[in-house]
Amino acid sequence: MEIAGESHELEYVYRRVTIEKRMQSGNRDLEGRVLVIYTGGTIGMTRNNTGALVPTSNSIVKLLRNYPQMHDEEYASKSFGDDGPLVLPITSEKRRVIYSVKEYDKLIDSSNAIAEDWIYLAKDIKRHYTDYDGFVILHGTDTLSYTASALSFMLNNLGKTVIVTGSQISIFEPRSDGFDNFLTSLLIAGNYNIPEVCVFFANQLMRGNRTSKRTTDAFKAFHSPNYAPLAIAGITIDVDYRLIFRPQTLEKFDVDTRLCEDVTMLRLFPGITTAMIRVAVQPPTKGMILQSYGAGNMPSNRKDILEEFRKAVAEGVIIINITQCSQGTVSAIYETGAALRDAGVLSGSDMTPEAAYTKLAYVLAKPEWDLKKKREIMSKNIRGELTADQRSPRKDSDLLDAVARNLDLTSQNDILQLRNILFPGMVGSAIMNQDIEKLKEIKQYGSDFCETNADLRTPLHFAASEGCLKVVRYLLENGASVHLRDKFDRTPLIDAIDNDHHEVIKLLVQCGAHISGCGLWLGQRLCSAAASGNLKKLVSYYLAGVNLSERDVSGRIALHFGALHNQGEVVKFLLDRGADPEAVDMLGQTPRQLANLASANEVIELFRPVSLSR
Ligand code: ASN
Questions:
Q1: Quick one: which of 222, 223, 151 has its CA closest to 383?
Q2: pTM above 0.85?
Q3: Is 41 in the pocket of ligand 1 (CB under 6 A)?
Q4: What is the pLDDT of residue 399?
Q5: What residue ranges define each of the domains in the chain, with the CATH number in brackets?
Q6: Burial class (CB in 10 A: 0-12, 13-18, 19+), 348
Q7: Is residue 168 within 6 Å of ligand 1 at its C-beta?
Q8: Quick check: is 42 catalytic?
């Protein structure tokens, strides 16, 4: 494997920074946290003594720290001290982006990338998933679309933004496209919830598994031939939320890194022989991507070739037919294409070669699926990689047109504003009335359940704080995100905890919601709940997966306060969940000592070791 290790130079310091320091600094900007994984590629290359471009270790972070467009030194040192993370200057986006760079030990030219590198990246994203809002992968352009496609399949139920980017000219050169690509990727990853593996290049955010490298020299190195860009970065960053592929399940994020190595690719050409095909499909080949002519055609006068495909399919090889054209889809409109289908070759619709190849490697590696299921999944859209079903047209224009006409609105901007006012209001009222039928209706009008109001609150925030379990479930099954934070940095999970909606908390956690951030903040809340005997609140935190022994500013845990205030029920609950009666606070006192000092008899009794009767 080419990628061997990782740099710990810039460990993420959110957890280490004391709450006091953040308070002293007076910095109250909303923040988005992004992990940058630097794998290599032209973006960070310099010339060696023969003049060839090679990846250079331990230099990108130094460059970024001295580049004011990529690092606001003043804000960073006030907020995080001297060796904290990098911080983008404030922009017109809502959140200031705080980012750390994890540089791999062996930086590579992406032409050297292999499947193990994708696996390493997928595992890395999993490892850091709960600490960041989004991820940016700096990667060479040559195989960037393969990596983005492979990751899109390996990252199951992705709930956060992952952007793969790079550049045509190194950022160590004066005229580089790298800064723009990198900076905008950071802004998007820290500000927008686009739960997909994306590629950002030359002002366009594209779905990763829809991209291909299209040129070796222009800055617009990638295109997404069969799917519109998810966002365009102009003066503002305009995201087309209707195009985003959101997981619609109650399962949490996970990675499946199994990939089958026995997948091959074959491009038809007029002089191809049966012997060549036979070599390609012979064992151990289990799958093949066939790049045929035009709309999926092959020469109809070459029964010999067709026979080879038929035999391979009969032996269990999955063959996927995609087009050689750089844009378009296969279809069986010609006799020549229908013959392939009849031989058992599956249509790959409008998949790029990169997506078709990595998807087949992913699907073939699943021993739990039989051949029939694997063939079925290859024809289905699982990550937005192919156009399978034509969705019924949305009705939003009908409704909007009607209201706009009544209000005499004609400009597109006015109509957009109307939409932004109308839909959140309708969704909010349906939630308050727990009216799922209404929500279904609104969804048909093209409403996105991740849309936010002026306080950046989403429908899931409202439903979670109201405690309507069935609405929460409906929203989650229809693409709502558990990760979005409002203007006050609250997630739907925090809303559910504050209102002690235990069933909602469980469901949100099941879908991957988690509490991240400062342990001290949690410690204060736990200690105050314990002091006042608020068992319900402690149960809420426990269900949310919080460590019940987080410390407050004086180093005390909830058990100290339960003991001091003689809260028997609370102390029993905490002891049963592993809280330590001998935990010492800043003054060296333990919960047991506090109970004795306060003559908290109920608690003293609970602390007494149970004597074993003979
Ligand atoms: N050869 C380089 C790579 O893929 C190309 C680039 O990044 N522009 O690593």
A1: 151
A2: yes
A3: yes
A4: 67
A5: 29-251 (3.40.50.1170), 263-378 (3.40.50.40), 396-510 (1.25.40.20), 519-613 (1.25.40.20)
A6: buried
A7: yes
A8: yes
